[in-house]
Recover the amino acids of this structure.
């Protein structure tokens, strides 16, 4: 096909163009779409690092917007694929031209260089970055690209090989494509690296990129590149690595967001953690206490997600992602989540009004919540698993008569205390629960025993008590659970309605009362441990004046308690509604299948409960340490503590 035919064909495909015609172009042009007349538009600089494997439409739209709708130039060193139509359909621009620059002679052409300089947006295609280095480095083409990046300040993007050369340090691939196997010999001949002798994108002087990242398991080779730079040039670089169909878009201030289907990674090295062994013919050893490189992972979205400051690689500014530690042990890449343990608790939701709470009673509640948080925190700080932390925190609340669980359980219609509890391991989906027990001091511990010491998930009544006895769990006389406040609550309920169960928040409280009988007092805890594992637990005494062996949502996995690798949930409220709407699992599903945040998912499920006539609340904690504590009542006893020991306790609606 002749060049004139290519140009004409490309023009007929133009979308969003005011008019299309063939523009006078340099000799290497593969085709021009749009207006042949050069225009000048107001532009905003930026760099789009695209991981290959397919177009990222959101990244192209980002560049088009920053181009001001001017002229777009696409450059490549091999192949003849035209991006013209791909770009034209995504936004209005004046023109799009693709250039094939496949020799140093072409790269030094004044016409080629001027075509590039006239661009308001530049895109470097995939291919072979060694061709870009051989043909373009030190030519008028590279000068023109750097002019766009640093003088004219227009958006410049590159995918795959085009992304590989858009950083100060770069890997050439001139002796074949290196794999993770090069970590077994960091000086393998395929590891050819160069130091700031080609393109000069803003903020990326001390950065080396990599692409097709997770898809091709390139974490190990990227770590090898970083170790070589540290060893050979005595400088500590940073890394940026988008996965396939994913882009890191960096604006003129150095602010990065991630657009696309996959994830992107930001790698931070430190002078305090240099490679221990980086020599020829020996496996790379870069452990540094399993904290060699700090890595921030951001999941992309169609319109951009997360934030990372590429201007200074300040870890404290990062948002919307998750931190990891990476290291290399005997040439093998390893990772673990950064220590980011979190613990969240609740002590029930209901009609909890500051106007009816005495200062003394509020102080007692806050003290009890603090004790529970401290108990769980101590476990996490010591490196214990999240299950241990959940059990420890819930036991403290079960032992406190302020809450409707354990010692403070409400009475049934027959004047008994019947307790329910559940616990779940988010890592394995193992779960255990007990219901209708009357002599187990700490039902949460019995629930864990069901999970770990039996083949079952739920045990009920006398059978659960017999099992607890056999496995050595503390049993008490039923009288242990009696409190005068709860007994009075039952008598009031019997007088009011001897046939209809009374919810323990159903009448207005009086000034100075303990305020227990007018709220749901269910307790719960969710924890995220050092290893990134979630667990959730819930314990309750149920409803005042309940009959016929009634069981609520707390011991039902998926209704009142749930945990997986994404999120952990513990609920408190009118159990029948939580069972009917499977609240805890519904929240998880909204996150996993619809991509909702834990906050939005929590809000959604509580609104659903409310529309059906139910009330209550929940606590939820996701794998990244994000917390949600929604409720639709006047208050909910709740608190959280993070790795740094920062504690927050709240009672009323804010």
């Amino acid at each position: 096909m002749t060049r004139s035919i290519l140009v004409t064909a490309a023009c007929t495909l133009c979308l969003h163009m005011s008019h299309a015609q063939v523009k006078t172009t340099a000799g290497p042009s593969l085709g021009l779409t749009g207006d042949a007349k050069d225009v000048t538009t107001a532009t905003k600089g930026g760099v789009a690092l695209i991981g290959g494997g397919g177009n990222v439409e959101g990244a192209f739209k980002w560049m088009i917007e920053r181009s001001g709708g001017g002229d777009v130039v696409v450059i490549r060193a091999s192949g003849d694929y035209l991006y013209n139509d791909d770009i034209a359909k995504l936004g209005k621009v004046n023109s799009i031209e693709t250039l094939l620059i496949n020799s140093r002679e072409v790269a030094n052409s004044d016409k080629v260089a001027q075509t590039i300089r006239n661009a308001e947006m530049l895109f470097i295609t995939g291919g072979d970055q060694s061709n870009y280095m051989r043909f373009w480095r030190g030519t008028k083409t590279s000068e023109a690209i750097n002019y766009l990046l640093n003088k004219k300040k227009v958006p410049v993007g590159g995918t795959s090989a085009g992304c590989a050369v858009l950083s100060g340090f770069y890997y050439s691939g001139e002796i074949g494509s290196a794999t993770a196997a090069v970590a077994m010999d960091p000086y393998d001949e395929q590891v050819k690296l160069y130091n700031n002798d080609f393109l000069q994108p803003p903020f990326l002087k001390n950065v080396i990129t990599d692409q097709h990242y997770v898809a091709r398991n390139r974490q190990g080779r990227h770590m090898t590149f970083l170790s070589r730079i540290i060893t050979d040039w005595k400088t500590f670089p940073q890394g940026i690595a988008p996965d396939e169909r994913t882009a890191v878009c960096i604006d003129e201030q150095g602010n990065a967001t991630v657009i696309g289907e996959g994830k992107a990674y930001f790698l931070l090295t430190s002078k305090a953690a240099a490679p221990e062994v980086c020599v020829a013919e020996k496996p790379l050893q870069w452990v540094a206490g399993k904290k060699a490189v700090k890595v921030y992972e951001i999941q992309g979205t169609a319109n951009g997600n997360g934030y990372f400051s590429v201007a200074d690689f300040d870890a404290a500014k990062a948002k919307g992602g998750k931190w990891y530690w990476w290291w290399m042990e005997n040439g093998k890449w390893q990772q673990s989540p950064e220590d980011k343990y979190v613990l969240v608790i609740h002590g029930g939701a209901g009609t909890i009004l500051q106007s009816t709470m005495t200062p003394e009673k509020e102080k007692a509640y806050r003290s009890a919540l603090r004790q529970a948080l401290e108990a769980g925190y101590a476990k996490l700080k010591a490196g214990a698993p999240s299950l241990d932390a959940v059990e420890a925190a819930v036991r403290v609340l079960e032992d406190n008569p302020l809450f409707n669980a354990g010692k403070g359980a409400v009475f049934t219609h027959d004047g008994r205390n019947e307790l329910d509890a559940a616990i779940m391991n988010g890592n394995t989906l193992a779960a255990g629960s007990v219901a209708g027990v009357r002599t187990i001091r700490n039902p949460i511990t019995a629930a864990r025993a069901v999970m770990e010491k039996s083949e079952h998930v739920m045990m009920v009544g006398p059978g659960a008590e017999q099992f607890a006895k056999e496995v050595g769990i503390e049993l008490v006389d039923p009288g242990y659970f009696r409190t005068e406040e709860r007994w009075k609550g039952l008598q009031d309920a019997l007088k009011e309605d001897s046939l209809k169960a009374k919810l323990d928040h159903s009448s207005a409280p009086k000034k100075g009362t303990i305020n227990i009988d007018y709220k749901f007092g269910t307790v719960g805890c969710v924890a995220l441990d050092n290893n990134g594992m979630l667990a959730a637990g819930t314990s309750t005494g149920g409803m005042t004046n309940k009959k016929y062996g009634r069981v609520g949502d707390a011991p039902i996995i998926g209704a009142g308690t749930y945990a997986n690798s994404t999120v952990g949930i513990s609920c408190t409220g009118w159990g029948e509604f939580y069972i009917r709407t499977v609240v805890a699992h519904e929240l998880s599903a909204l996150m996993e299948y619809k991509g909702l945040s834990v906050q939005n998912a929590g809000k959604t499920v509580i609104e659903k409960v409310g529309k059906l006539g139910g009330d209550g609340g929940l606590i939820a904690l996701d794998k990244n340490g994000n917390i949600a504590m929604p409720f639709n009542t006047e208050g909910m006893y709740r608190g959280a503590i993070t790795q740094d020991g920062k504690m927050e306790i709240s009672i009323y609606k804010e």
User: Anything to note?
Assistant: The chain is about 30% helix and 25% strand. Confidence is low (pLDDT under 50) at residues 1-26, 498-519. The first strand starts at residue 29 and ends at 34. The radius of gyration is 31 Å.
